[in-house]
Design goal:
The protein is built from two helices and no strands. It is an all-alpha fold and about 70 residues long.
Length: about 70
């Protein structure tokens, strides 16, 4: 029998927990790895943001056209 799925975290829950984590527990190498992972995530988030902005601009252009 399958195990029940874990409840999904709410929006921003992971981000909130990351910002509260005690960084004093990490070594310099672990902090460098964390920085690299977060920088990769920043690129991913910026890409998603740009896609949304492009979609919004396309929708605005489509729906703001006035019939001639």
């Amino acid at each position: 029998m399958d195990e029940p799925a874990q409840p999904r975290q709410g929006r921003g829950a992971l981000q909130d927990s990351l910002s509260k984590e005690d960084l004093d527990l990490y070594s310099v190498e672990e902090l460098d790895t964390r920085i690299a992972v977060l920088e990769t995530e920043i690129v991913r988030v910026r890409s998603a943001r740009e896609r949304k902005l492009s979609g919004r601009a396309a929708a605005d252009a489509l729906f703001s056209r006035r019939p001639d």
